[in-house]
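Exam revision sheet. Question 4 asks you to relate a sequence to its structure. Input first:
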Amino acid sequence: MKNMEEQRSLPKWILIVSGLFALLELMVSVQLFFSPQSVLETVDLTAKGIDYVISMWAARQFALGFIFGFATLKRSIPMLTLAYIFFLVMFVGDIFIGISQKESSLIVAAVVMCGISSAMIYRLNKKR
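Answer key, structure tokens:
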């Protein structure tokens, strides 16, 4: 019974932030699937196999959005924690990609998102 009370007592701002992340991930997925040129301006979309890579990326974004949405609706601290851990790992990878591509905007955005993910993981588990 206590576990259900803890799950229901998540601060609204955590649910709002997590819900926004769910929506953003779902929107990116839809955009990648239906209009990849709007997201990938510098990529040759006619290159062999690129449609496969874009579809896989869109599926990853959709899965992450769905997981965030489901965890938010369920108000599940363990599920939200796992979603933010996935987010953190994904953005750590983006930092390395940004470094290898010498793209400072990607590095900065990934560092900010790592900070947000880490803060959310900390805040979610602070109550335990």
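Marking note for examiners. DSSP finds six helices and no strands in the chain.
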